[in-house]
Design a protein that fits this description.
This protein is of the alpha+beta class. It has 3 helices and 9 strands. A 7-stranded antiparallel beta sheet has the order 1-3-4-5-8-7-6. A two-stranded antiparallel ribbon has the order 2-9. A hairpin with a 2-residue loop joins strand 4 and strand 5. The longest helix has 13 residues. The radius of gyration is 14 Å and the shape is globular.
Length: 155
Amino acid sequence: RQRLAAVAEDHARAGHEESIVSSDAGAVEQWLNGRVPFAVHIPLFPEGAFEGARLCYMDGRRGAVLRYRVDGREVSYYVMPGGSFDSSPPDPAPFLKSRESGYEVVAWREAGLIHALVGNLPEERLLSIARFCIQRPAARLDRRQVSSSNEGPIS
């Protein structure tokens, strides 16, 4: 839960990190290339508008935050290297859900990366976006960069 609180707090104070404002997914992917230690592919949500990306730093690791507007509200999609999260055992539930700092947070682990959606949307709406993201992964980490990779929610 501490990790979920950290992404919710980062979402609330966004704006101090290096960022790009663009709806051009290809341009944003190029901008992120070399700034984060994994390849990012921008998922375009149905009924949502992609607005850009920024960098974030958690647990001393650099990640990407993809910014969207969904149902008129800001939604942040965090993609971060797994790091210490990978030491936790896999959980049978596909998502970890919480409400932190006034925002709904839905998180999961996939391909050595931590994924989290944060926004002021109903939990079910974020879950439907998360399911969409799992079908169209936003990022892939080269397995050689991951010491061990468990898929599933974070703890």
